[in-house]
């Protein structure tokens, strides 16, 4: 939990902004923080640092996350926490600096300067884009986590599969292997290694559904897990709705013929 009282007392800054309620300009601030050094937005605190509170329903957090995700390019998915201060509810939105910049909202790009958002010029947009071309998003260090956040059993399973393919053999210790594969940098996990091996699934997910026609969904599932498990669960869901025939050609094991190649 963030030290919200101290943040409120210190007022708005390059990394802090107050909002009485969640509106479109909140997403502008999210984009500005993502394009600069990250920051915190407190919903339910007015410009004078007075705690006014905000209404939070059962679906509020998911609604805001979806709204932010769908209206930003590349999609930003911040962490949102519900806090109780002075018997009032506020939301703390935590935005990390986004590695693949610049991020836009409705085709417009913002950056944080002092305690306000500034619309970026075409030259600023171009310069920012060029600076991040030399690294991909998943090669960045995952913020605020150490290698203890990775699940050893998942890594061992990965190494076993790699060795069984015969493409190359991994015979060193796990951490040296991950460093060579650039899944660990400076003793910290990259975003890629967290997506693959995190003990606790990240907020990223796979959404899979079955449609009766162009607009009617008759079944769907959201799979929130690390990538290997997400692929397996997605395939299980797909196979549930695929026809399969069996052929016997004299061998002990039958041959499966699916509607579509697996």
What report would you give on this structure?
By secondary structure, the protein is of the alpha+beta class. It is 32% helix and 24% strand. It is built from 8 helices and 14 strands. Strands 1-2-5-4 form a 4-stranded mixed beta sheet. A hairpin with a 2-residue loop joins strand 9 and strand 10 (188-189). The radius of gyration is 23 Å and the shape is globular. The two termini are 44 Å apart.
Gist of the model:
It is built from 8 helices and 14 strands. With 262 residues, it is of the alpha+beta class.
Annotation keywords:
4-stranded mixed sheet, 8 helices, single chain, 14 strands, globular, 262 residues, alpha+beta, 4-stranded antiparallel sheet
Following the backbone from N to C, one meets helices and strands in this order, namely HEHEHEEEEEEHHHEEHEEHEE
Task: Output the structural class.
Answer: alpha+beta
Determine the fraction of residues in helical runs and give it as a percent range: 25-40%
Q: Return residue spans where pLDDT drops below 50 for at least 5 consecutive residues.
A: none
**What's the overall geometry?**
globular
Count of DSSP strands: 14
User: What is the alpha-carbon Rg in Å?
Assistant: 23 Å
For the largest beta-sheet, the strand count, sense and barrel status come to:
4 strands, mixed
Average pLDDT, to the nearest integer? 88
Instruction: For the record, give the distance between the C-alpha atoms at the N and C termini, rounded to a whole number.
Output: 44 Å
β-strand percent reads 15-25%
In terms of quaternary structure, the protein is single chain
């Amino acid at each position: 939990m963030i030290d919200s009282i101290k943040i409120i007392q210190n007022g708005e800054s390059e990394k802090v902004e107050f909002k009485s309620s969640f509106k479109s300009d909140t997403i502008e601030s999210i984009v500005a923080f993502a394009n600069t050094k990250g920051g915190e937005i407190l919903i339910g605190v007015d410009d004078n640092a007075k705690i006014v509170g905000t209404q939070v329903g059962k679906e509020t957090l998911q609604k805001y996350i979806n709204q932010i995700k769908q209206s930003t390019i590349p999609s930003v998915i911040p962490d949102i926490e519900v806090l109780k201060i002075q018997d009032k509810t506020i939301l703390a939105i935590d935005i990390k600096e986004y590695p693949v910049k610049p991020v836009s909202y409705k085709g417009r790009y913002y950056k944080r300067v002092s305690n306000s958002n500034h619309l970026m010029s075409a030259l600023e947009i171009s310069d920012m884009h060029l600076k991040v071309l030399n690294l991909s998003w998943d090669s960045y260090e995952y913020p605020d986590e150490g290698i203890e956040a990775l699940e050893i059993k998942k890594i061992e399973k990965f190494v076993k599969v790699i060795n069984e393919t015969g493409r190359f053999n991994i015979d060193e210790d796990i951490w040296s292997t991950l460093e060579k594969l650039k899944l660990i940098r400076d003793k910290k996990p990259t975003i890629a290694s967290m997506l693959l091996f995190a003990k606790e699934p990240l907020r990223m997910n796979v959404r899979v559904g079955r449609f009766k026609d162009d607009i009617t969904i008759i079944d769907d599932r959201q799979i929130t897990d690390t990538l290997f498990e997400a692929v397996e669960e997605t395939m299980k869901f797909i196979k549930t709705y695929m026809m399969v025939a069996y052929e016997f050609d004299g061998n002990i094991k039958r041959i499966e013929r699916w509607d579509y190649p697996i």
